[in-house]
Amino acid sequence: MKIITSVNNSQVKAWSKLNTKKGRLKQGKYLLDGWHLVKEAIRTREPIETIMVQPDFKHLQEIEVPEGAGLIQITDNVVKHLSDTKHPQGVMAVVKIPEQQTIEPEDVNGAWLFMDNVQDPGNIGTMVRTADAAGFSGIVFGDGTADVYNPKIVRSMQGSQFHLKMVTAPLEPWIQAFKAQNKPVFGTELNPDARPYDQVGKHADFALIMGNEGNGMNKELLKQTSLNLYIPIIGKAESLNVAVAAGILMFQLKAN
Amino acid sequence: MKIITSVNNSQVKAWSKLNTKKGRLKQGKYLLDGWHLVKEAIRTREPIETIMVQPDFKHLQEIEVPEGAGLIQITDNVVKHLSDTKHPQGVMAVVKIPEQQTIEPEDVNGAWLFMDNVQDPGNIGTMVRTADAAGFSGIVFGDGTADVYNPKIVRSMQGSQFHLKMVTAPLEPWIQAFKAQNKPVFGTELNPDARPYDQVGKHADFALIMGNEGNGMNKELLKQTSLNLYIPIIGKAESLNVAVAAGILMFQLKAN
Questions:
Q1: Chain B residues close to A210, C-beta within 8 Å
Q2: 3-class SS shares of chain B: helix, strand, coil, % to 5
Q3: pLDDT tens, B187-210?
């Protein structure tokens, strides 16, 4: 097996650039970090290009390298250089970013989560993971929302990107297309005049829009929705964390 | 106004120790960091001992220093030394930790969140904030759960510790006391044989127990609950984030 020991190796330099949005766009790939993610990517037959392991990685024998993918040993210092985490597990993979141009709003079904300018990678990843758990079909990363394959988002999605359709696109055409098909598009706002979230029934085909952590949803988009929802705050907290609010709404709105 | 410019100042050394559990226990105080928290502590009349500000803090004129509290200027380097955040806002406060020995499970009302060995400070703080929003009355930090006044927890509670009763205690006597008063105690487990969470009605007086991120609730405690609940996973995610699960459960179970 090929061994790379230097962070100055040209391949390591190229991989390292996948930690930036620019690098991911240019190469059309992203990094998986950790055994859970690499194993799940193998299981769901993602287009893995290379798997990188430390020589003493304890699950080395369990790695079923997909056809066409490479397996390369990298030393401790290289793992640390590539990994965004404090305590890397000693296994990573380079995966091709799926083509998404073919996903059109007119052709999709089920429940969709639209993110409008959501900023925090942990919140975004947790929302994707929760959407997966709630049985959603896909996510649209709207304008201003952090990049899907940001390492922190990838970590907190915990592999749910393999289970859902992932689209990066402006939300407006998606909102219009859903409405044209008579699928409700629910906006959210911290406004007691909006409709309480538990009074709109359960739905099979719909979209839920979550907004920015500090400022909420874009005002123009709020005007385009079918209905805007509100989670009543009973106590004295000023608001809910956006990922918690998204979880409450997704599990409330989705028909099983 | 007194100005402290050195991190070697004895008062700064004492404050700095409040970033550790040992220091907080010894001094019986903790640190608030940022304008939102300091302002909320003033508004809710917390026992503030000292407010520390940078000379150029933009809300300096708005600070209503409580009677008996000190106001001290600290320089940039001192703020950076004391703050746990990357971008401190230039205002902090030292607050006395409330006496909690007087809160007995026999004497409380309403909905309570019990935390069993929850580890991540961000999850813990978010759960406290959500409990506040859902109209809960108090929180019990059970064995193994990170310390309430950990700086990261304080940051993510966003002041909700001022609105709720906060107790650190073993959970078993609290479970027994609630049950003795015929208040349901709901455990949680990732087990499809447990009761679906949306089939147990809404309650005014009850407890909800959330467990460890990786291992769930303690097996012995699961046997002592009134009933254990499960959030059905519809998609392919293995689990929900504990703070998201807690939010879904608290809003589902709490009678308004």
A1: none
A2: 35, 20, 40
A3: 999 888 899 999 999 999 999 999
